[in-house]
Amino acid sequence: MIENMQKLDLADFILRHLYSSDKSYCASGRALVIELNRQDGIELTYEQVEAALTYLHDRELIDSIVSVGRQLHHISLSIKGEDLVTAGYGVRDLARRNTNSYINNTTIQGDVEQFVQGDHNTVVQNKAATADELLENVLRLLENHNETAAIKEAREVKQEGGIRAALKYLADKAFGGGFTYAGTVVTQQVIAILPQITQALS
């Protein structure tokens, strides 16, 4: 039953609801409770929804105005939250992989995006990089760590289904079993750049 779901599951449910909503925002937590209960025929409490919203807000997956008493108003999906849903993942994936800090660390004000490449921490900068350029940077990073099979597969998937298909393939590898030779640090770097590719596509 949805009424008895855990906080992470409810947070994910709310995130997907905001993603699929045609409104720009929800006025408040109380309004969201009414909306969810009416639309989905469930019985969520204000406390359940507010706890899940606070969890999402603290991880910058939603944008909102926080009033006195930590009540949230003008709730909308953040770019980071939209990237997570668009990539086909949820709140539990983010918590399990602890990718929160890595996604945050790739965002730089202005038109310069950068990520660390290789064992010598060489910084690669891309001014207004396209999605194709960012994807090529990820593939070069993997090539530096002998992930030739993953690179070949990603290129084939891209040729058959486009860049979004290649993005999903890389996300599945990174969040799933990981890469064969690239270690945790490289995998985290790949995870960090995926939202930037998604954003460049929009």
List its traits.
alpha+beta, elongated, three-stranded antiparallel β-sheet, 5 strands, 202 residues, two-stranded antiparallel sheet, 58% helix, 10 helices
Provide an overview of this structure.
The protein has 202 residues and is α+β, with helices and mostly antiparallel strands. It is 58% helix and 13% strand. The protein is built from ten helices and five strands. It has helices spanning 7-20, 29-40, 46-58, 79-86, 91-97, 100-104, 131-143, 148-161, 163-175, 184-201; strands spanning 26-28, 62-66, 72-77, 112-117, 122-127. Strands 1-3-2 form a three-stranded antiparallel sheet. Strands 4-5 form a two-stranded antiparallel sheet. β4 (112-117) and β5 (122-127) form a beta hairpin. α2 (29-40) crosses α3 and α9 (163-175) runs antiparallel to α10 (184-201). The longest helix has 18 residues, at 184-201. The radius of gyration is 19 Å and the shape is elongated.
Question: What is the helix fraction of residues, given as a range?
Answer: 55-70%
Order of helices and strands: HEHHEEHHHEEHHHH
Content of β-strand: 5-15%
Shape: elongated
Mean pLDDT: 75
Radius of gyration: 19 Å
The beta-strand count equals 5
* Uncertain residue segments: 99-127
Structural class: alpha+beta
Could you give a short account of the major beta sheet?
3 strands, antiparallel
Total of DSSP H or I helical runs spanning 4+ residues: 10
Strand order of the largest sheet: 1-3-2
Oligomeric state of the chains?
A: single chain
Distance N terminus to C terminus? 36 Å
